[in-house]
Amino acid sequence: MSLNIIVAAGMGNHVIGANGDLPWGRIPKDMKHFRDITMGHPVVMGRKTWESLPEEYKPLPGRENIVITRNASSVKTNKGPVIIFENIDSILEIAKVEDVFVIGGAEIYRLFMPYAENIFLTLVMGEFKGDTYFPSISESGWYKEYMRFNTEKANPYALAFCKFVRKEKQHYIS
Ligand SMILES: NC(=O)c1ccc[n+]([C@@H]2O[C@H](COP(=O)([O-])OP(=O)(O)OC[C@H]3O[C@@H](n4cnc5c(N)ncnc54)[C@H](OP(=O)(O)O)[C@@H]3O)[C@@H](O)[C@H]2O)c1
């Protein structure tokens, strides 16, 4: 059982967000990759990322949707069942018995980075401007298990699907 991060970031600057949305809009190949990896598992997101999801994707189907906020009453859940937590403790407990995927945004990635065992990173090849960035992945703490390129013409941008694994297993997960 594990705590995992999944993110798409711009090549070079690791930008992940712009004005509450993705800097590159929708990339079908990456959306499929995200769906394939997270399907059937709880997904954890910050309140702002929950609000950024297009209405037609809320809640993400086939996955328990968990939203983190400091003020549970502020989360609009009229689009379907979501679980709301005001801190990360319960989520770390769930990750002892299930594979959990942290899906953003930047504040929530920073919160879980010390506990994550795997990072599924899609690099989007292009120059993007934005206001939200993924934290740096230190070479001393992580190794790259794979990097697979996707250059299909149907996609607006070339992509590289990477997986990073923490070098030392975290102790909180038995
Ligand atoms: N490229 C990608 O893969 C990707 C993935 C996800 C999101 N994004 C982008 O990232 C941007 C949003 O990211 P963001 O960093 O601004 O927001 P976020 O991480 O989605 O959400 C931040 C919110 O989480 C809650 N929160 C933060 N720390 C907390 C704590 N310690 N305890 C309880 N609640 C806590 C707070 O909610 P309250 O204010 O309600 O208290 C805070 O306002 C958007 O542009 C989105 O499109 C990109």
Descriptive overview:
- The mean pLDDT is 93.
- The radius of gyration is 16 Å and the shape is globular.
- With 174 residues, the chain is α/β, with parallel strands linked by helices.
- The chain has helices spanning 28-38, 47-52, 89-94, 106-112, and strands at 3-10, 15-17, 43-46, 65-68, 83-85, 100-102, 118-124, 132-133, 142-150, 159-166.
- It has an eight-stranded mixed sheet, with helices on both faces. A two-stranded antiparallel sheet has the order 2-8.
- The longest helix has 11 residues, at 28-38.
- The protein contains four helices and ten strands, in the order E-E-H-E-H-E-E-H-E-H-E-E-E-E.
- The protein has a single domain, classed as Dihydrofolate Reductase, subunit A.
- Helices cover 17% and strands 29% of the residues.
- NADP nicotinamide-adenine-dinucleotide phosphate binds at residues 7-8, 16-17, 20-22, 45-49, 52, 68-71, 74, 86-87, 103-108, 111, 132.
Characterize this entry briefly:
The protein has helices spanning 28-38, 47-52, 89-94, 106-112, and strands at 3-10, 15-17, 43-46, 65-68, 83-85, 100-102, 118-124, 132-133, 142-150, 159-166. It has 174 residues and is of the alpha/beta class. The chain has an 8-stranded mixed beta sheet, with helices on both faces.
